[in-house]
Amino acid sequence: MALEGKVALVTGASRGIGRAIAKSLAMQGATVIGTATTEEGASTISHYFAKWGLPGDGIVMNVNDAQAVEDGIKQITSAHGAPQILVNNAGITRDNLMLRMKDSEWDEVIGTNLTSVYRTTKAVLKGMTKARWGRIVSISSVVADMGNAGQANYAAAKAGMEGLTRSLAREIASRGITVNCVAPGFIDTDMTRKLDDAQRDAMLKGIPAQRLGEPEEIADVVAFLASPAAGYITGETIHVNGGMYMG
Amino acid sequence: MSTVEERVKKIVCEQLGVKESEVQNTSSFVEDLGADSLDTVELVMALEEEFETEIPDEEAEKLATVQDAIDYIVAHT
């Protein structure tokens, strides 16, 4: 299998897109460590790996806490080896119109969706550099490129993630490490289920495929980017959105 | 047991992909041995590991030659 012997770290893996990514990497042979912010989330992850009969485990790691990230990576490294695949998936929304947005809503989204990417990536980079092989895939959003009313904080964080990706890709390409983003459109997850019917219908009108995407359709692209087959793709953002946005 | 000098030179060879004969005490990592900025960061990481020490960023920036690295290690381990 393509990822046999690799340790993969997937942040925010208890449900939705993160869970699907964890599964697809494990199906390719990687040992996958999924993170959650609570004990309950971590045990959800451990249980689904057991159910699937795939190699993987869940741990508690708040990506918004520098010490927790450092400790988490150390823990994974001593138990399984240094992660050679990192998927920055953990993310939150705190939607509000700019005129009403609170500093806390801005700070939380930038912290969890952008600063966490800096922190987690930095923590695994040393191991990847030594191994002369690594894959970093961050889950962005179509909103980074299109913008979306009510999501100035979220769009800023995701666009920041894409800029970080391009810069790091240039820094580290010579060490066999690729750095890319996958930008989902409207995917059927808890995050999009929060929308009401009117919002949903309006969204669907803008999607040529006339349906929501499935988490697995994101996970398949992440698994490809993590595989040896994608070794010459770096600094790229791959859009997966049913034609909603074509650049 | 190898001397600090021998161990430092061995790491320099491994990290920068140069032959032992090319590495003099006066050799500059960047000017003589062809290191780029990322190479020098990796070199410091490798020295930290070999000598089980932590080299602060502001000290690491001052290590320009093989002798600088040897002197630092001798003084701090």
TrEMBL record, chain B:
Residues 2-77 form the Carrier domain. 4'-phosphopantetheine is transferred from CoA to a specific serine of apo-ACP by AcpS. This modification is essential for activity because fatty acids are bound in thioester linkage to the sulfhydryl of the prosthetic group. 4'-phosphopantetheine is transferred from CoA to a specific serine of apo-ACP by acpS. It is found in: Cytoplasm. Keywords: Cytoplasm, Fatty acid biosynthesis, Fatty acid metabolism, Lipid biosynthesis, Lipid metabolism, Phosphopantetheine, Phosphoprotein. Pathway: Lipid metabolism; fatty acid biosynthesis; Glycolipid biosynthesis; KDO(2)-lipid A biosynthesis. It comes from the Bacteria. InterPro entries: ACP, ACP-like_sf, PP-bd_ACP, Ppantetheine_attach_site. Gene3D superfamilies: ACP-like (1.10.1200.10). It holds the Pfam family PP-binding. The modification O-(pantetheine 4'-phosphoryl)serine is found at residue 37. Carrier of the growing fatty acid chain in fatty acid biosynthesis. HAMAP family: Acyl_carrier. Belongs to the acyl carrier protein (ACP) family. This is Acyl carrier protein. It comes from Marinobacter suaedae.
